Amino acid sequence: MLMRVWLRLCRLLGKLLLTLVIVGLLGWGAGEAYYAWKFSGPVSAEEQIPPEEAALTQTIIEDAIRVVEQHRDNTRVLRDAHAKAHGCVKAEVSVLADLEPALRQGVFSEPGKTWQAWMRLSNGNAYPQFDRARDARGMAIKLLDVPGDKLLSSKATAGNQDFVMFNHPAFFIRDVAEYKQNFAAQADGKKAMAFFPSWDPRTWEIRHLVIALKTLAPAPETPVATTYNSIAPFKYGPHNIKYRVIPDPASCPPYELPEQNRDLPNFLRNALYQQLSLDRVPACFALQVQLQNPNYYMPLEDPSVEWSEKISPFQTVATIKVPAQDFDSREQNLFCDNLSFNPWHALPEHRPIGGINRLRKSVYEAVSVYRHQRNGEPQAH
Fold first, then answer.
1. How far apart are CA 187 and CA 262, in angstroms?
2. Per the domain annotation, does 45 fall within a domain?
3. H/E run at residue 116
4. Residue from 143, 88, 80, 44 nearest 360 by CA
5. What are 137's strand-pairing partners?
6. Looking at the structure, do residues 19 and 97 belong to the same domain, yes or no?
């Protein structure tokens, strides 16, 4: 009797499991077909600016100011994102000596040219937390003494050309309208509402939630062993591109980082200090660009879509060397905290494009001015 009941129960569970597998496969197939249809080219090679974007941007600036006030460190106002730095280090960015003519644009127009630069490595959160916490990781590069008028600059930043990146190839937000809704929910402490703004499933952003969860990755062994992406597109002379920085250890002396104590709150800074300051071994990267092919789904206004490397491979345009150096001093850490990075600190040949980049122009500038005023510091370089 019990055996028959058990066998029937097993058959029932088996049928239920099989049904769930079939439904899951059908759902997966339908999703793949939907996105293959939705994410198909061609796309525009020009920006398309929604009429309500300016008003939304002003609201986002107000929310960003709320965030920096919420996360004040005692009396000091921090950045609204990437508040915790692992260090600011000196770097050398060298244009390839044999760079092909079509890629000789802007600061990369002179083959063999080496720019002196500052590089800031950071966690992504708006409040400093232990490095072992899942988080985005950022790299910002500031080329120095770059001649020419910039798209956005002050007297202090007139010679700067900035590149701002983080360690995932896609952003978890589509456009300024979604950013406004998502950021406001997080500023109010309602993180679930960031991707599920209502009970209507049509408003849910499950794909973007998946991207966000992938972005919040475990910490690398060291900040110089990670790939960093621009995510949003930029001009590159006549081209539309995305760029990234990848580790290039083969261009530096061989080095094996000693195992780090990942329970320490700042072990990523310790790893950087171990390599550059104690062991005196430089770190090397390659800076690459990926050209838009508008015949395929490589949109300018949706940075949540990763451009296909099969269609348009990344091409190296410069090398980056971070020489051995002492960087972890009180004076340099304060200097690092006062640095402002903005992708609009740029030559016209490198103009940021797309909604998220247009948003950055206003928000980064407003938060930087507010932060330095509140901290009693002059506007930084």
1. 29
2. no
3. strand 114-123
4. 80
5. 123
6. no
| Residues 23 and 93 both lie in one domain | no
Band (pLDDT 50/70/90 cuts) for residue 80 is low
Instruction: Write out the H or E segment, with its range, that includes residue 332.
Output: helix 330-338
**Token pair 């092909």 is at which residue?**
100
Instruction: Tell me the one-letter amino acid at 119.
Output: M
Say what the alpha-carbon torsion angle 208, 356, 167, 297 is, to the nearest 10 degrees. 70
Domain of residue 8 covers 1-38
Same-domain status, 301 and 159: yes
CB distance 287 to 245 below 8 Å: yes
**Residues paired with 141 in a beta bridge:** 119, 163
Residues 131 and 235 in one domain: yes
Tokens 């340099």 belong to 332
Are the beta carbons of 163 and 230 closer than 8 angstroms? yes
Q: What is the pLDDT of residue 380?
A: 54
Burial class (CB within 10 angstroms; exposed 0-12, middle 13-18, buried 19+) of 92: middle
Q: Which of 4-18, 127-141, 311-325 has the highest mean pLDDT?
A: 311-325
**Rg of the chain over CA atoms, in angstroms?**
23
Q: What is the dihedral of CA 170, 173, 174, 178, to 10 degrees?
A: 180
Q: Provide the total of helices (H) and of strands (E) in the chain, helices listed first.
A: 7, 9
**Residue 278 DSSP class:** I
Query: Counting beta carbons within 10 angstroms of the beta carbon of residue 238, is it exposed (0 to 12), middle (13 to 18) or buried (19 or more)?
Result: exposed
Q: Is residue 117 a contact partner of residue 248, using CB atoms and an 8 Å limit?
A: no
> Domain total for the chain?
2
197: left (phi over 0), alpha (psi -120 to 50) or beta: alpha
Same domain, 319 and 214: yes
Distance (Å, whole) CA 32 – CA 42: 19
Helices (H), 39-138: 53-70
User: Mean per-residue pLDDT for 286-303?
Assistant: 97
**Number of residues in the chain:** 381
Q: How far apart are CA 41 and CA 80, in angstroms?
A: 35
Q: Would you state the structure tokens that stand for residue 257, as one six-digit string?
A: 């980082």
68 domain residue, yes or no: yes
